[in-house]
Amino acid sequence: MIPLKIENLCMSFGTQVIFDNVSFQINNNDKVGIIGVNGAGKSTLFNILLGNLTPDSGNITLDTKINLGYLPQVIMEDASSEDETVFDYLLEGRPIKKLKEELTNLYDIIANTQNEYELKKYYKKINRINELLEYYDEYNAESILLKIISGMQIDDNLLDLKLKNISGGQKSKVAFAKLLYSNPEIMLLDEPTNHLDLDTKDYIINYLKNYHGIILVISHDVEFLNAVTKKTLYVDKMKHNVEIYNGNYEKYMKIKSERDLAKQRLYEKQQREEEKLKGIIAKYIRGNEKKANIAKDRIKKLEKLETQKIELEKKNKYTKFNMKINRPSYSIPIKCNNLTFGYDEENLLYENLNFDLTRGEKLLVVGENGIGKTTLLRLIMGYLTPIEGSIEITDKTDIAYYAQEHEILDNNKTILENFANFGLADYEIRRMLGSFLFSGDDIFKKVEVLSPGERSRVALAKISLTGANTLLLDEPTNHLDPMTQLIISETFKNYEGTMLVVSHNLDFVDNLNINRMLLLPSGRITYYDRDIVMHYEMLEEKNKIVDNLNKEYFQENMINSNY
How far apart are alpha carbons 104 and 110 in whole angstroms? Predict the structure, then answer.
């Protein structure tokens, strides 16, 4: 049986067509990279498979017994798990405790049941639960989880923290670990490497390469796609269709390039033939009978050519915008004095942190996940209050904040409504949003229904209108396709104001002309060094490798001694 099959799928949002008569199938153990420009429908496809969206028409065949696991781009807050610790949250990846409780209840019911029909029904349920316990490897499950925790370099201290008290990057890593532990038969991954450091990314790549199941992954990370995937599903925004290629992203690019070149040559040949036929027709159409017959023959050939005419793909449009400042700031727009902060006084993120920003410079904040990079930006914005110290922001400092989880957007409002406080006429907002690829009825969509890539473009549009002379950028390239990443890096490179940047994207950072780097948690300032950006996140982890191995050895032996 084919595990996943889609036939004649059609999906629209109002007048905007997303999919038009799409059909494809996914086979056992397929590892498929899903690519396409932002807004093409990649995340929409996942939401259809997950049952969050109902298509207009078409058939989706998915075995109901298949365990489906999903890692979204943005990890949303879960009110039910606010007070839950990270470790308890991870344990829930395999519902072993719940299954064993069900099994105990069923045995109690059987002990008091005489009806043979009822007994058969209960025994059938017992067999199904035992199958699931075997699938989840009941006796080795905790050992498997500890190996995943170690491989993903989730620190011991993090396991005891409540979910609500960890950073966005840490939440993404923890959610990924839980997904791996849940051992789904089909894994849906939406931009899985956005928040991963280099060591964790290497572990994930090796894990997924050896994973026995289906992987569907949306990603703009070419290195990751080339390492993990064996097929590529291209979502065509212009044609509202999809096409599957055998091979990873690199192979797809080669095949597509060869196809496009062959199509271009055939197109040019047809153009030459068309011009030749039109020339003969124009020359002979009003001549004598013999010449008129020649013209009629060429008209038939031209009509046939028209039915076979090659159409070249339309070029995708990309975001274009400028960042202008309304006024210059003072020479030191932001200064941090003896800054001390932690979510509790026993676990400080940094202590006595001192640095200042010089007008016009670009300062990169570097450090491992969870060390407080996003927190620093939130402290500057006044969303958090330091335990000690102060942040001086001069009165000519106009700040615009790009938050990685798009907190500057109101999800309950439309795109257009999110720009109501700029004092612009609708036609001015429409013109501006057009440069961010929102046109027609797009602007009436609520932000909550947009893909993360589309929300990123709305957030960029908002900060582009502020005229701010100081930008706080928190992972601004997450969720954006490679071409858009290049465009915004060029825009920010030419920005005349001051920038404080948090980013794991080396290509983006390289292009910004970064002046200095702030290394957290030490607070040391150094000149920009690409090697430090690549390896700084691993420096502190190196000392933990032996501790993790010892911990794993100790815990495995403790577990084995209990059985």
Answer: 10
Inter-helix orientation angle 96-111/116-135, to 10°: 160
66 HSE (CA, 13 A, CB side)? 20
pLDDT 10s digits, 140-185: 999 999 999 999 988 888 898 888 878 777 888 899 999 999 999 9
Q: Is 433 helix (H, G, I), strand (E, B) or coil?
A: helix
Q: What is the DSSP string of 174-189?
A: HHHHHHHHH--SEEEE
Q: What pLDDT digit, counting tens, does each position of 340-394 carry?
A: 998 777 778 889 999 999 999 999 998 877 788 989 999 999 999 999 999 999 9
Query: What integer pLDDT is reported at residue 76 of this predicted model?
Result: 59
372 close to 522: Cβ distance less than 8 angstroms: no
Side-chain-side CA neighbours of residue 94 (13 Å): 22
Look at residues 156, 148, 143 and name the one whose alpha carbon lies nearest to residue 561: 143
The total number of residues shown for the chain amounts to 563
Buried b (16+ CB within 10 A) or exposed e, 16-40: eebbeebeeebeeebbbbbbbbbbb
Lookup: tokens for 501: 């940047």
| Helix (H), strand (E) at residue 99 | helix 96-111
Q: Averaged over 9-36, what is the pLDDT?
A: 92
Distance CA 493, CA 323 (A): 10
- What amino acid occupies position 449? V
Is the pTM for the entire model greater than 0.85? Answer: no
| Owner of token pair 């170690």 | 150
